[in-house]
Specification:
The chain is built from 36 helices and 69 strands. By secondary structure, the chain is an alpha+beta fold. The strands form 18 sheets. It has a five-stranded parallel sheet. Strands 28-29-30-31-39 form a five-stranded mixed sheet. The chain is globular. The two termini are 53 Å apart.
């Protein structure tokens, strides 16, 4: 064989530049094709020289031989130097020639600048090297031979000279590039700062518009928005306050100016917003204002998540340097507008501000002080215990200069707490308006009223003596130092519609004096202000016609109780009034309302002050029943109108013309304009808020009938509208609130509650798709909702899908409420918030996700970017406002739930922190670690800490309701520690008050609500019950796997989650299993405090369940555990009666039959064959060989094989389940197995470094398979056999050394040199002859290969690695597409191509798509460029031309002549199991069948596939 292969490498013609060996006629051609021969010759020469050297040393006894050998040795060494020098010269000249070609090409280009040509000319010095090398090469070969040593030294000097010239050129180029980039940067800044001409202005306008779209600022909250109901201070008032504010902003007024925040606070009506508006305007005129946000209780002006992004937008308009850096941040993180306030502050303000200031140090100076005004912070919706805005500022206040914040608000509790935060307190100047001397406030009100009344006198041409001094003095006295009274009084008196200021002043004074006289008998805190409001309303009623007078109360009541401010046109539509009615009624109320002009149809009606709506709904203040708004009646009217309006809802309300319903909301052209046109504001309001008004209404028969009509026919259309409006997040809470409200009402029999529940479950199950695709929602519900769901039947009427789910859909809603998948990492720990509304989970990659427990929607992400480490434990504080986490790196972190801010990091442990816990009173926290200690922390002063010790790692800590701390450890003990009188300064070890000893490590501990009983969950699965008071064992509950989580319910029930057993509810008295909630194990589990909800995670899938209805009532009924203990026999043990059977989590492998009619599912102890069309289990085969790791079918489907954990390969008959053959021989894990096309043999590969092949018989005997290939120390980790059975592709790794590639059998040498991967191993890809095992090709690879595959025609191969990269190899020179065509003449090559898309995870499975146009890596579709696609694609019939694959939560369809398109979104519980990747790609014309995450079979048909 070697002789034949050597003959094939003979080159028939000698190139003209061939080199000749001096003194011989032999020529050696330096061609690329002969490089392998040259390497072999050089190697042989080196070996010969070494051998002759040894011979010379050993031949001293024979001088003649020694002399002859010495002479030959000198000649060969000289020749070797000559050969090396000759080759080096050729390589050097070739390198210079290539460089010259590139230089000439660049210099000849038309756009090559002269400066570059000048620098390129400096490289002409390379010609010197070329000339010298040419002279040497032109000399006679004998001369070159004799001067080989000198030539070698000269070549080294030429190479150094060449490198020096090139490096000089590159260094100069880098400097030039840096200077040019800097100059361009300065030009861009200058252009953005001073745009010139129309082009510059247009560019800047476009940039501003792009920022507006990216940040979504609330323009209504800006200083000059025109929507404010406030006015500026009168020019002669508030001098002292305004002077203080001006001084605070000036750098020359310490210590006042040293504070970064000024808090201006007072009670309602004191004029805070007026002062804020005034100073903001003055600072704006002085170019000192950076941004403003005027809060209000309507729309986005009340949304705390909008404040910092709006401020960032304004700063970007004022400061170009800031804008540039902000733009770069938004390019990398475009969704920051939706992040938490803390993250918005960090990324949108702090980071660009720091970068802009750094630029300013080198260039133009940045302003020393920039004012930021946030007015009426108390009017923002913020339920946090401490203001989110202030907590965010506390985290970054040191990094915010030169920004200075003026914040105005009422002294609400959560805001006052925020100003007590240390970082805020140290940087805040406090200014309380109520502490200003009353005389000054009275003076300012007097000046204001005097000015207003003088203006009124002039407007109405009254006598100069009006008003009388005593009238003015009386009016000032009635104000009670409230500016709101003064402003409302001036508006009322000067009402242009009434045009009677004299009478109005008189009547107002009479009413006010009367109210003042009754002050002692009135229950109102503001009797005089109330008298003013009554006066305003009475005068309004007198000026209205009877018809309009009747509607005044309805309109006012709606304005007062509406969830957002409405325009007059919207209010007309909402209340079904004739167009223009609201505008005819409201002008008479100008004293208390701001009504936009008739030309303005976008500005809403505003209530001037919140004291007016408070007055209208309070019967103790509004004593006139003609004006008193009764909320239940008003809510009834609004709810009725909302339900009537929503009858306009319909399928595809926008009229979108897409051919299918898989379009996302974001893909609909002109979405906002379409929404505005097809869903007018009144209908939008009805969709958002009908549930709130319904829950506040009196439910009459008419309202119930309207609600029934809506629920029967419009629920889905309502969800469509919410999806388009981006309001699905609130749907579950809204539906639950209506259900809870209806349960309190005495109603006739109705289907409304069940329909609302059905809708709630649909939103929970399908929230991800409902929130992003209004159209596809219908198909999703029609396909995947339970068969008995009324909503499913409604959805089917409108669904535009060709799919039908044949198998896998439930009949009724299961107890699984929410199912979601973390795509990035496994879930390590779970925790419910105290109110059960949220659930947090920690991942292996170090993130903490906070989810809405109703929908699974992400609410917050906590990530310590400075120290990424696996999260091992979580615990909510009793208030639910903070979260404690323990990490693998030994740290304990405290997080703020509302902002996502990291409040503290405690570092004391030296190993993993397995458990954390809060004390019931919120003052202490505990952490348990692998270092064998429990750390007890004072939350307020964590520097105070106590160490509690175990002899081995501590797995769990929990506080008992009475304050004691319990810790469970791997040392098989549970210790009880008394914490109420602990010595914080004690230097001696603290001893537990009680130690509970076990016979297995304690994994988790729970304490009953009355602190009477303790349950310890053990590693061996048992649960031991103890009395806490005396440490006596009172019972034992059985189990077979590690206990993951425990919780006592008030009813006396104990819930337990196990690692690989069902979650179980125990009756601790009887030891009976009350219920098994889920037939799955759990890596992590949590139980909600409401006794109703449970959550568990396996790998990366999280599910939230509801205990069955019969359990709910038992779980929440309180009982005494003391009474239970009196009935429980001490030390009783319950017999293990756990039901046996294979669990869905034991699923090890899945394989689809070649006919696509059967699915083989392999579990730990059983094999099941499912019929695809019906989902019926056709055959069950029990086995005792343990877990299988792989399964495969024979080409006809008559046989199938599985790999056992004992390294055997077993083959069964499909029709009978008979075991045909068991193959042994492998000593390591089998990584792949496949049948040959004739079904006579079964090759298998193993990490024992072998590829074996077994002969299939019919007698079921065990036999040892034959070794087909034995690698030289390599573990075979991936394996594939070609479709014709002639070729094998294998991937292997070896930790010691690279493979030997000198074997003469190789057809192709590697294209790259061997290299170690990050684990220090060498990786190689091999092509084998499947008959002999002979290796034909080896390729060195830089990383670990996880999967390989052949194309159908064997001309292409794929390899996927650990890093998610995919490589394609062209095998046509080794494996011709036509077997009758001989291979190409040598040298052969196997080109490698890296495909453009990188998969996020290691590629465990890879294959070609049926049409050959793509690679399917895991579940990712990767297009293959046309020139690299397989040469032959087989398409047997039309039905099989399309195919389907699953990727990114969607099922996709691909036709031979089209790109992939979405077919349907797949809910989490229906998504393919990670072992089901072999079910895709699925060919058209056949059912789509796979095993879902929960272990059930899912089968779909696509009617359009044929």
């Amino acid at each position: 064989m070697r002789h034949l292969r050597a003959k094939r490498r003979v080159i028939p013609a000698t190139p003209t530049n061939a080199l000749s060996l001096p003194g011989t006629g032999t020529e050696i051609a330096p061609t690329a094709g002969n490089s392998r021969g040259k390497d072999l010759a050089n190697t042989s020469l080196s070996i010969l020289i070494s051998a002759l050297g040894v011979t010379k040393e050993l031949s001293s006894a024979c001088p003649q031989l020694q002399m002859a050998v010495g002479a030959l040795l000198i000649a060969l060494e000289a020749y070797k130097k000559y050969s090396d020098a000759t080759e080096a010269i050729g390589s050097l000249l070739s390198r210079i020639h290539s460089l010259n070609e590139k230089l000439n090409k660049v210099q000849s280009a038309d756009r090559c600048p002269q400066s570059l040509k000048d620098r390129l000319a400096s490289l002409a010095r390379l010609q010197e090297v070329t000339e010298e090398a040419g002279k040497v090469r032109s000399k006679r070969r004998i001369v070159q031979f004799l001067n080989a040593t000198n030539n070698t030294e000269r070549i080294e000097s030429w190479i150094k000279k060449l490198d020096q010239h090139i490096n000089d050129f590159l260094v100069e180029g880098i400097f030039t590039l840096e200077l040019t980039v800097h100059a361009v940067h300065q030009d861009l800044i200058a252009m953005s700062d001073k745009p010139t001409g129309t082009t510059g202005e247009t560019a800047r306008a476009q940039a501003n518009e792009a920022l507006r779209k990216a940040l979504r600022p609330v323009v209504e909250a800006l200083l000059h928005s025109g929507t404010s109901v406030h006015v500026q201070c009168h020019e002669d008032t508030r001098h002292e306050v305004l002077s203080t504010l001006r001084s605070w902003l000036q750098p020359d007024h310490p210590p006042l100016s040293d504070r970064s925040i000024l808090w201006l606070h007072a009670l309602a009506g004191s004029g805070k917003s007026t002062i804020a508006l005034t100073i903001a305007n003055r600072w704006d005129n002085d170019k000192l204002l950076g941004a403003s946000f005027f809060c209000a209780r309507d729309g986005d002006r009340s949304n705390v998540n909008c404040i910092f992004r709006t401020i960032a937008y304004q700063l970007s308009l004022r400061f170009p340097a800031f804008r540039g850096h902000l733009t770069m941040i938004l390019e990398t993180e475009p969704d920051l507008y939706s992040s938490t306030p803390t993250r918005q502050l960090e990324k949108l303000i702090v980071e660009p501000l720091e970068a802009a200031r750094a630029d300013a140090k080198r260039e133009a100076p940045f302003p020393a002080h920039i004012a930021i005004v946030i007015d009426a912070l108390d009017e923002c919706t913020d339920t946090a215990a401490v203001s989110i805005v202030l907590k965010s500022l506390a985290s970054y206040i040191a990094r915010l200069p030169p920004l200075k914040f003026l914040i105005t608000s009422r002294p609400e509790e959560n805001i006052a707490r925020g100003f007590l935060l240390q970082n805020i307190r140290e940087n805040t100047q406090d200014l309380a308006l109520n502490e200003i001397p009353k005389a000054r406030t009275r003076r300012d009100i007097s000046l204001y009223l005097r000015s207003c009344l003088a203006e009124i006198r002039d407007n109405f041409a009254l006598y100069a003596s009006w008003p009388a001094p005593q009238q003015l003095e009386n009016l000032v006295g009635l104000s009670e130092l409230l500016f709101i009274f003064a402003a409302a009084a001036a508006r009322y008196i000067g009402d242009t519609a009434a045009r009677d200021p004299e009478s109005r002043l008189t009547s107002l004074l009479d009413a006010g004096n009367a109210a003042a006289a009754k002050r002692g008998t009135s229950t109102s805190p503001f009797p005089i202000l109330d008298a003013l409001y009554i006066q305003v309303l009475e005068n309004a009623a007198r000026h209205l016609e009877t018809e309009l007078k009747d509607r005044l109360k309805l309109i006012l009541g709606t304005i007062v109780l509406a969830e957002q401010r409405l325009t007059p046109t919207t209010l007309d539509a909402l209340l079904d009034l004739e167009a223009g009615t609201v505008r005819r009624v409201l002008p008479v109320l100008g004293a208390v309302l701001t009504i936009p002009s008739r030309e303005d149809d976008t500005t809403p009606i505003s209530i001037i002050h919140l004291s007016f709506p408070n007055f209208l709904i309070d019967p103790t203040r509004c004593t006139d029943k003609g004006f008193l708004v009764q909320p239940c009646i008003q809510h009834f009217h609004i709810a009725s109108r909302c339900l009537n309006l929503m009858q306009e809802l319909k399928y595809n309300i926008l009229g979108h013309s897409s051919k299918d319903d898989c379009v996302l909301n974001s893909e609909i052209p002109d979405l906002l304009a379409n929404i505005s046109h097809h869903i007018p504001p009144a209908l939008q309001y009805a969709c958002k808020y009908w549930t709130r008004h319904l829950c506040g209404a009196e439910v009459s028969e008419d309202l119930l009938t309207a609600l029934e009509e809506f629920c029967k026919f419009r629920l889905l259309h309502w969800l469509e509208a919410l999806s388009l409006l981006g309001c699905v997040d609130d749907a579950v809470d809204a539906l639950q609130s209506v259900q809870a409200f209806l349960n309190t009402q005495s109603l006739r029999a109705t289907d409304v509650p069940s329909l609302l529940y059905d809708c709630e479950r649909a939103v929970r199950a399908f929230y991800p798709i409902i929130s992003i695709s209004a159209m596809h929602m219908y198909s999703t519900i029609a396909l995947f909702a339970p068969h008995d769901s009324p909503l499913r039947r409604l959805a089917a009427e409108n669904a535009r899908t060709s799919l039908v789910v044949r198998v896998g859909v439930e009949d009724t809603w299961s107890t699984t409420l929410v199912s979601c998948v973390d795509d990035g990492s496994s879930i390590e720990v779970l925790a419910f918030s105290p109110n059960g509304a949220c659930i947090a989970y920690g991942t292996w990659r170090g993130t903490i996700q906070l989810l809405n427990a109703h929908t699974g929607a992400e609410l917050q992400v906590f990530w310590n970017h400075a120290n990424i480490s696996s999260i091992r434990s979580l615990s909510f504080s009793p208030t639910g406002k903070e979260l404690l986490s323990g990490s693998r790196d030994g740290t304990v972190n405290v997080w703020d739930i509302a902002t996502g801010a990291q409040l503290n990091t405690w570092e004391a442990h030296t190993d993993w922190v397995h458990s954390v816990a809060w004390s019931p009173n919120d003052t202490l926290a505990a952490s348990a670690s692998d270092d064998g200690t429990v750390r007890l922390w004072r939350v307020a002063s964590p520097e105070k800490m106590v160490v509690l010790r175990h002899s081995y790692r501590v797995e769990h800590v929990v506080f008992a309701p009475d304050g004691d701390l319990l810790s469970g450890s791997g040392d098989e003990t549970c210790k009880i520690w008394e914490t109420r009188s602990i010595g914080w300064d004690s230097e001696t070890d603290i001893e537990p008050i009680r130690t509970l000893k076990h016979h297995s490590p304690v994994c988790t501990v729970a304490v009953s609500p009355d602190s009477c009983m303790v349950a310890c969950g053990l590693y061996n699965g048992k649960i031991i019950l103890w009395t806490k008071s005396d440490g006596q064992q009172v019972g034992s509950l059985p189990g077979r796997s590690e206990v993951v989580s425990l919780v006592f319910y008030p009813s006396g029930l104990l819930a337990a989650a196990y690692y690989s057993s069902p979650i179980t509810l125990w009756d601790v008295l009887t030891g009976a299993r009350v219920k098994i909630a889920s037939n799955e194990g759990a890596w992590a589990a949590a139980f909600a405090l409401d006794g109703l909800h449970i959550a568990h995670a396996t790998r990366n899938q999280l599910q939230i369940h509801l205990w069955p209805s019969e359990v709910k009532q038992k779980a929440i009924i309180a009982t005494s555990f003391t009474g239970k203990l009196n009935q429980l026999a001490r030390g009783s043990t319950v017999e293990d009666r756990e039901p046996r059977g294979d669990r869905q989590t034991d699923l090890r492998a899945i394989a689809r039959s070649p006919t696509w009619k059967l699915v083989l599912a392999v579990y730990d102890h059983v094999l099941r064959i499912f019929e695809v069309s019906t989902g019926r289990c056709m055959r069950t085969i029990h086995h005792s060989s343990g877990a299988f790791s792989c399964a495969t079918w024979s080409p006809t489907g008559s046989l199938f094989a599985c790999i056992g954990h004992d390294h055997t390969v077993r083959v069964w008959k499909t029709d009978t389940g008979e075991l045909v053959r068991t193959f042994t021989g492998h000593s390591g894990d089998v990584t792949g197995v496949v049948f040959t096309p004739d079904e006579q043999h079964i090759p298998s590969a193993s990490d024992d470094r072998t590829i074996r092949r077994g002969k299939i018989g019919q007698n079921g005997q065990q036999m040892t398979s034959d070794v087909l290939f034995q690698s030289d120390g390599y573990h075979i980790v991936a394996f594939a056999v070609s479709s014709d059975g002639r070729w094998i592709l294998s991937a292997a790794d070896r930790p010691s050394s690279p493979p030997d590639t000198s074997n003469a059998d190789l057809l192709v040498a590697p294209s790259r040199q061997p290299v170690k991967d990050e684990d220090g191993a060498y990786n190689a890809l091999r092509l084998h002859d499947a008959t002999t095992g002979r290796v034909l090709w080896i390729e060195h690879l830089p990383s670990y290969i996880r999967s390989v595959a052949f194309s159908e025609d064997c001309t292409r191969a794929l390899a996927g690695n650990e890093e998610g990269e995919v490589f394609l190899y062209d095998l046509t020179q080794i494996i011709p597409p036509d077997n009758t065509v001989p291979r190409s003449p040598h040298p052969l090559a196997v080109p490698e191509h890296k495909l453009s898309v990188q998969v996020a995870d290691a590629i465990k499975r890879i294959c070609f798509s049926p049409n050959g146009r793509a690679a399917i890596a895991n579940s990712t579709y990767i297009s293959i460029p046309p020139g690299l696609q397989p040469l032959i694609v087989r398409t047997p019939n039309r039905c099989s031309t399309p195919f389907f694959f699953y990727e990114e939560d969607w099922l996709w369809r691909v036709n031979l002549d089209s790109d992939p398109r979405r077919l349907c979104w797949v809910p989490p519980s229906f998504r393919p199991h990670e072992e089901s990747t072999g079910s895709f790609p699925s060919p058209g014309g056949q059912p789509i069948a796979y095993i879902a995450l929960g272990g059930s079979l899912v089968t779909m048909d696509d009617a359009s596939a044929c």
